[in-house]
Each structure stands twice: as structure tokens, then as C-alpha cells.
Write a structure and sequence with these properties.
Blueprint lengths: L2 H7 L13 E2 L5 E3 L8 E7 L10 H6 L23 E3 L5 E3 L5 E3 L6 E2 L2 E2 L5 E7 L8 H17 L4 E4 H4 L13 H8 L13
Parallel strand pairs: 1-5, 3-9, 3-10, 4-9
Antiparallel strand pairs: 2-6, 4-5, 7-8
Helix pairs in contact: 3-5
Length: 200
Amino acid sequence: MNAHAASKRDPHIDAQGWLTDATRLPSPNFEARPDGAVPTLIVVHNISLPPDDFTTDAIAEFFLNTLDHDAHPYFDQLRGMRVSAHFVIRRDGEIRQFVSCDERAWHAGVSSFCGRERCNDFSIGIELEGSDRLPFEDAQYAALTRLARIIVKRYPIDAVAGHSDIAPGRKTDPGPHFDWQRLRHDSALPPSFFPFLSNI
């Protein structure tokens, strides 16, 4: 079996921080993590461009700095923005990776987790294609669960949070339709990994 086939059979994050079976779309929007910083937090987001539209490739174009800002009125407000996440999970469960997990993606913005500022420094950002107004797909939960397990095997992750948890009042995602209990149950991660959940 060649190396490519083996990576598909046993997906993992390689020595350069890339998931071996993800669709790889390297974004220019990243930088090195601060010296000594390693990922200890997974941050879950949602995104759709335009909002509630899952038929375009605009998320990838936005993260790759190739978005046509004249293609939709909503895109005008995104001019000049440079954003990325490590992963995007599409509605059908496809996992796309834009930034190596070893690098600092630009997904969290002004943020704080348990008193520690600048969550981009020590987190891995996962965007679910979706919105605050619509449920997520079963395929997305399955992909997120698998991805979280793979990340935890590779890095010293000890918590999972939503963007709204680390930027309260500024962000609302992944939103009210995201089923945190489902992720907790399916991933089999310890309750301590979910500090913002109760009554699990």
C-alpha cells in the first residue's frame, strides 16, 4: 500500500500539521504561533456566504483572498478582511483544511478563554458551513466528531468551546441549533473538555 492510500485508510494529522484525508486549500492568512504556544483549545464556529446560502464556494474564496466582492451585496462588507480557519466542514461532511494546525489561523479575533487572551495563539478553529438559524447536518456532526478525535490524538487539547463562549457579546456562533450534547456524547471526550456545558 502506498503512503497516499495508507493516509486515506488511517487519517491523521501529519508532521506538518495537515489532516491527511482533508481537501487541502492553503490560505495565505496565517502566521506562526508565539514561541512555545501549542493548540490546547478547539473553537467551533459557523459560517455561510452569503448568509444561509450553502450553494456557493464563497467561504473558500474568502479564506483564499479570491472572493469577488461584487458578486453579492453582502460581500461588500468583507472587503479588505483577511480571515481563515484551520478547517471548514461543508454540509455534506467534506472536511477542507486551509491552515496547518501548527500555525496560527485568523478565526477567533478578540477573544478570551478562562482568562487567557488571544485565543488564536493556542486554538484550532473549525468552521461548520451553517448559520444561527438552521440545524446542522448529520454528516457535519459525524465529520466534526471524527476530526475532534484526530486532533486530540495529535495535540494536548483539553477544551472545546464555541466562538460565542470566547467572544461573548461579539459573536453568536455556532448558534442555538448546534447540539453540544451530541458532540460530547459522540466524541466521548471527558466532560471537563466542555467547560461551558452543564447538565450533560
